[in-house]
Amino acid sequence: MPILRDWRLTFDQAQFMQEYGHTFVRILRRPGMPEVFDATFREIAELAEPAVIWESFPVQEMRHEAVILAGGQRIGNGPVTTVMGGASHLAIGVCTVGAAVSDRIHEHKEAGEVVRSMLLDQLGTLAVGQLSQRFYDWLKTDATSRGLHISTYLSPGESEWSVRDQAVIFDLLDATQIGVSLTESLLMKPIKSLSLMAGIGSQPMGVPGTTHCDYCTMGDRCPFHGKHAGI
Ligand code: SF4
User: Fold this and answer.
1) Rounded to the nearest whole angstrom, what is the distance from the C-alpha of residue 172 to the centroid of ligand 1?
2) CA of 227 to the centre of ligand 1 (A)
3) Per the confidence metrics, is the pTM higher than 0.85?
4) Which of 73, 141, 187, 201, by CA, is between 20 and 30 Å from 24?
5) Closest ligand 1 atom to the C-alpha of 222?
6) Per-position pLDDT tens, the chain of length 231
């Protein structure tokens, strides 16, 4: 089961302020806050340990909203077969930026460093989003080099695809190899982790030009909508 660790994530403070600065305007007027921002940007760059575990699974058939894999496992509902219909394989992966980021968010919170905890939390979310987009781009390049097509990617729980399928993904992949586990309530630990799935096949799949955000139940209410490419 391939594990990829050689990712270079970028944290551009100027770009972040352009995108999200409006939510921090009042906070940044407080004494010492610009320094807190600088320190937190250094912190995310130091603490993030990006890793991805993934595998390509042959598809046996698609039945209504579900995909039946060659091993007999059933995965998907909601928009999965609309997006991945016609795929011969499913690429399934778990991405994480590691436990150190989540631990530090918790430590700042415990120490009453609310702004620092909140900012690091947001940067951690952007970091794992960026990692999932980089991994998807990597899959796309690989598929294209083999003359294949790839669908957009989806994550359980983001769209109408039920979060319950996290359990199927964690049965298929031994994500403990990159330090990620699934709790009984289907939350990934460490929290700054994401699972994703994309279809690979000889013909184009899904609706051209759409992304996972177009299928997400958060829609435009999400501050990160369409921004998984990172900062
Ligand atoms: S809308 Fe937000 S939560 Fe939904 S997939 Fe896009 S970035 Fe993720």
Assistant:
1) 24
2) 8
3) yes
4) 187
5) 2
6) 899 999 999 999 999 988 888 888 888 888 999 999 999 999 999 999 999 999 999 999 999 889 999 999 999 999 999 999 999 999 999 999 999 999 999 999 999 999 999 999 999 999 999 999 999 999 999 999 999 999 999 999 998 999 999 999 999 999 999 999 999 999 999 999 999 999 999 999 988 888 888 888 887 788 777 766 555
What residues does ligand 1 touch, defined as CB less than 6 Å away?
Answer: 158, 212-213, 216, 218, 222, 224-225, 228
CATH, range 3-11+50-105+125-218:
3.40.109.40
* Bridging pattern class, strands 51-63 and 3-4: antiparallel
* Structural domain spans, the chain: 3-11+50-105+125-218
Ligand 1 centroid to Cα of residue 200, in Å, is 22
In order of 9, 59, 78, the CA distances from 141 in angstroms are: 18, 21, 27
Number of neighbours of residue 63 by Cβ within 10 angstroms: 11
The answer to whether the beta carbons of residues 93 and 169 sit under 8 Å apart is no
